[in-house]
Specification:
With 569 residues, the protein is an alpha/beta fold. Helix content is 36%, strand content 19%. It contains 15 helices and 21 strands. It has helices spanning 13-22, 63-73, 80-100, 132-146, 212-219, 247-250, 277-289, 311-317, 319-329, 386-408, 415-433, 440-454, 461-478, 492-516, 534-537; strands at residues 2-9, 30-34, 50-51, 114-115, 125-126, 150-153, 155-163, 166-174, 179-190, 224-225, 230-237, 254-256, 302-305, 338-347, 350-352, 366-368, 373-374, 438-439, 481-482, 539-546, 549-556. The strands form 5 sheets. Strands 1, 2, 6, 7, 8, 9 and 16 form a 7-stranded mixed beta sheet that branches. Strands 17-15-10-20-21 form a 5-stranded mixed beta sheet. Strands 11-14-13-12 form a 4-stranded antiparallel beta sheet. Helix 3 packs across helix 10 (386-408), helix 12 packs parallel to helix 14 and helix 13 (461-478) packs antiparallel against helix 14 (492-516). The chain is globular, with a radius of gyration of 22 Å. The termini are far apart.
Length: 569
């Protein structure tokens, strides 16, 4: 049995930051599990930048303005104590990343360059061309290697072992061999990213964003907080959903309908294309619904036009965006506009965090950071540039929190951990030998279609109740799923099987939370309840997994300085 003081699950920005800070105590043995090679983690897909009130481009910017913008952007559902902690500590963290060797773009004075992003009152998004997440990921990996963090690559989390509220460790599969391992640990940091693949083909998320850590926590009794809040990025490529960074609009890109209008003048006359993501996404979908888009059905789109920026500026600041448009749409955006449509991008909700300074969950020894959890600083809608900031800042504090837990807790019983290992070993053996059953990919595709059409950008009670019944039926049918691969080594069909199971559980929670939130707030837009209802719903959703039954509760939002007001841009 493997034995570590701290295990981090996930090697993206949050996971590697957590491992780095946990390993700053050389007496602790720290390991990272990742189902892919660390520098391929999804943080590397973050293009546009990372928010911090450095004041390099606008010396009137401040942490207080960043605080205010984030709370307003969240449609007042963010916990303000956590937001203030976040915005206050971000400038120092940018300096720390700079010192680690992150190659930020520079302004004419040699300071870290900053650009405008949606919903921000100042240009505070620090960047490295349009490859910000990629360069941060590589710098963190180097630092972890320097600190002798042990990496288990191509390992997949199957479950967490908790006995009567006591965390014992985790069970994971070495994908290369098919061996199931028990790992005893004093503390764990879950940093497995989001679960946007519940919308499968209509998402900017990588194919491995399947909510593994979120589902594992959900299964042991940790509630999901605010899962109904799903961010749809305005500018996914029309045919694939692949992300074109908000930097496109930050640098001055236009959104154009089939009549040639910059239609955002109708929806956010002051901010135009730099309105918050939920507003811009709904505006695009409204243009399409009202017949001012191009194409038909799922192939409908509007255009994003960057030609007026000129080739030099595009190649300096948006080279990867240009490459993506050429590779996936066959469009050179130096010469012509690119077809775009909203695409599921980010989950504001996730694992319930009870202390933002340590990223602790309700179970001692289990911490979480990044998109898999809800601190909550994003509330009902995340501002662009706050995600990479979230993963590195709270990754740091999750690592420190796990370090404290590891020093406080001791290795004890492994009875539940050993039972979990036996359960998964037997399940792997049973599933891979199964000869007939329901095709699991048909179930996955039906889930995605149901979520996109009925729990998507626009929502109504009848459609969501229909979706809930469909998801429950799919969960039942999944019991007879068939993977069609009997191999032990590199059995990716079995990994897909566990991932789809996780996604179905999370899709059900997203839908339940959305049905019961009878208002429109941030990314949650209901045609039958079109206004925000602070009297009844200025509160966090908490959903508990009690087997086939899900229990729903609510908890208060922490409000310190900014009372809710109408959100206008």
């Amino acid at each position: 049995m493997f034995k570590y003081d701290v295990v981090v699950v996930g090697a993206g920005g949050a996971g590697m930051m957590a491992a780095l800070y946990a390993s700053k105590d050389p007496s602790l043995k720290v390991a990272v599990l990742s189902k892919i090679f660390p520098t391929r983690s999804h943080t590397g897909a973050a293009q546009g930048g990372i928010n911090a009130a450095m004041g390099n481009r606008d010396n009137s910017d401040s942490a207080e303005k960043h605080f205010r913008d984030t709370v307003k952007g969240s449609d007042f559902l963010a916990d303000q104590d956590a937001v203030e902690f976040f915005t206050t500590h971000m400038p120092e963290l940018i300096s720390e990343l700079d010192y680690m060797g992150v190659p930020f773009s520079r302004d004419i004075n040699g300071k870290v360059a900053q650009r405008p992003f949606g919903g921000a009152s100042s240009p505070r998004t620090c960047y490295s061309a349009d490859k910000t997440g990629h360069v941060i990921l590589h710098a963190l990996y180097e630092q972890c290697l320097k600190n002798h963090v042990r990496f288990h690559n191509d390992w997949y989390l199957l479950s967490l072992a908790v006995d009567n509220g006591h965390f014992e460790g985790l069970v994971a599969m070495d994908i290369r061999t098919g061996n199931v391992h028990a790992i005893q640990a004093k503390a764990v940091v879950i940093a497995t990213g989001g679960y946007g693949r519940v919308y499968w083909s209509r998402t900017t998320n990588a194919i491995n964003m399947t909510g593994d850590g979120t589902a594992a926590c959900f299964d042991i009794g940790i509630p999901l907080k605010d899962p109904e809040f799903v961010q749809f990025h305005p500018t996914g490529l029309a045919s694939t959903g692949v992300l074109l960074s908000e930097a496109c609009r930050g640098e001055g890109g236009y959104l154009i309908n089939k009549d040639g209008e910059r239609f955002m003048a109708r929806y956010a006359p002051d901010k135009m294309e730099l309105g918050p993501r939920d507003l811009v996404s709904r505006s695009i979908e409204t243009e399409i619904k009202e017949g001012r888009g191009f194409g038909d059905g799922m192939g409908s789109y509007v255009l994003m036009d960057l030609r007026h920026l000129g080739e030099e500026k595009i190649m300096e600041r948006l080279p990867q965006v240009r490459e993506l448009a050429m590779d996936f749409e066959g469009v050179d955006l130096v010469k012509e506009p690119v077809p775009i449509r909203p695409s599921c991008h980010y989950m504001m909700g996730g694992i319930h965090i009870v202390d933002h300074k340590t990223c602790a969950t309700p179970i001692e020894g289990i911490h979480a950071a990044g998109e898999c959890c809800a601190v909550s600083i994003h509330g009902a809608n995340r501002l662009g540039g706050n995600s990479v900031a979230d993963v590195v800042l709270f990754g740091k504090y999750a690592g420190q929190g796990a370090q404290q837990s590891a020093k406080k807790r001791s290795f004890t019983s492994t009875a539940k951990l050993e039972l979990e290992k036996i359960k998964w070993t037997e399940k792997f053996d049973l599933i891979r030998k199964k000869k007939t059953g329901i095709n699991m990919f048909e179930i996955r595709d039906k889930m995605a279609e149901t979520m996109w059409y009925h729990v998507g950008i626009f929502r109504t009670e009848d459609e969501m109740k229909q979706a809930y019944l469909t998801i429950e039926d799919l969960l039942e049918r999944f019991k007879d799923a068939y993977i069609g691969d009997s191999s032990e080594s590199y059995n990716m069909a079995f990994i897909n099987y566990v991932e789809i199971s996780n996604l179905l559980k999370l899709a059900k929670a997203v839908t339940l939370g959305a049905i019961n939130r009878k208002e429109s707030r941030g990314s949650h837009s209901r045609g039958d309840y079109p206004t925000r209802d602070d009297e009844n719903f200025l509160k966090h959703t908490l959903i508990y997994n009690e087997g086939e039954y899900y229990r729903l509760e609510y908890s208060p939002v922490t409000i310190t300085k900014y009372q809710p007001e109408e959100r206008k841009y």
